[in-house]
Design goal:
It is built from 12 helices and 8 strands. It is an alpha/beta fold.
Length: 325
């Protein structure tokens, strides 16, 4: 008892440096949860100014003619939903609204296809419940899934020289449930060579670029949607012209959603009203600012909490040193 009574009280500096780890985790959980609710239900968003690499990607994707075909090369897993998942959802919304057909496959790991299927199903629900309702995107008629390729580099090399040989053995069920070759589908029936594809879009947190640009980069526009940590390296491919567009992780997904909401006018101004046909039109009245915008506000709030925590710790250190003099 005497020992407890004689124990000196902590100074303010010591208290500021000894905040419980559990208290910090609980605060972080509360900040992120509240910010997600505010962004999703109240529309609170962090303003963004799209980079040129994102605008170039949007201009290509927004101007693919209706009925033409592109490729989505997915590396999106459940672990990368925060960045790649947001990029994938925004891209799927665009393609469905433009009535662009797409081929989807992976050479990262098999679960990527299942994750993509769940996202397609989610957006189809959005389209079905929209006012007015929009037609759902149907497998076979509007898109085909080629599955998992264990050796993506070899597959892409064959695609570059003979796309029908590369994918000719793949089969899909048509709308009647009959298994048929994918080149009989409306998606690929007019694709004779890789140059007939209007865009090649890898959405992945892994670095696939050296393989992709060396195989197909000269024959079809490649637009990379990468994780934030991969952006500095892949930006070199964009500056050299090997990539025609590039999205920078979660920030890039937010910028893409912003462009879907505002568009790029004839003078190249985001959200501008210049006379003439826009370089890339917006999607007025539709759900544009979605999961990426929600996550980005929560991310910024979490980073703000981190800065406050560092500041409090440093203030506590200064006070303790001052008291020890």
């Amino acid at each position: 008892m005497d020992d407890q009574m004689d124990k000196p009280k902590k100074s303010l500096g010591e208290k500021l440096q000894s905040v419980s780890r559990n208290a910090l985790y609980l605060t972080l959980f509360g900040v992120v949860s509240i910010s997600l609710v505010l962004s999703h239900w109240m529309g609170i968003q962090v303003p963004s100014q799209p980079q040129d690499c994102t605008k170039d990607a949007y201009k290509i994707l927004r101007n693919i003619p209706e009925g033409q075909t592109m490729v989505i090369d997915t590396g999106t897993t459940n672990a990368s939903r925060g960045e790649s998942g947001c990029q994938m959802e925004a891209t799927l919304r665009m393609m469905m609204r433009e009535k662009v057909k797409f081929v989807l496959y992976t050479w990262v790991e098999p679960q990527c296809v299942e994750v993509a299927k769940s996202m397609i199903a989610k957006i189809n629900v959005e389209r079905r419940t929209a006012k007015p309702p929009q037609p759902e995107y149907r497998e076979w008629d509007d898109y085909v899934i080629l599955g998992f390729f264990p050796d993506g580099g070899t597959m892409l090399q064959t695609v570059a020289s003979n796309i029908r040989e590369a994918w000719g053995a793949k089969k899909e069920k048509d709308t009647a449930g009959n298994e048929r070759g994918v080149f009989e589908s409306p998606v690929l029936q007019n694709v004779r060579r890789v140059e007939d594809l209007k865009a090649y879009v890898p959405i992945s947190p892994t670095n696939l670029m050296p393989t992709i640009v060396s195989r197909v980069g000269r024959k079809v526009p490649v637009i990379s949607m990468c994780a934030g940590v991969m952006f500095p390296e892949q930006y070199n491919y964009y500056k050299s012209g090997q990539l025609k567009g590039l999205l920078n992780g979660l920030l890039g997904a937010v910028e893409l959603e912003s462009l879907m909401d505002k568009g790029i006018d004839a003078d190249g101004v985001v959200g501008g009203k210049a006379a003439g046909a826009p370089l890339a039109a917006s999607f007025p009245g539709q759900k544009n600012m979605a999961r990426a915008s929600d996550y980005y506000f929560a991310f910024c709030c979490a980073m703000a909490l981190l800065l406050v925590t560092i500041l409090v710790g440093n203030v506590g250190m200064m006070l303790e040193r001052r008291g020890a003099r």
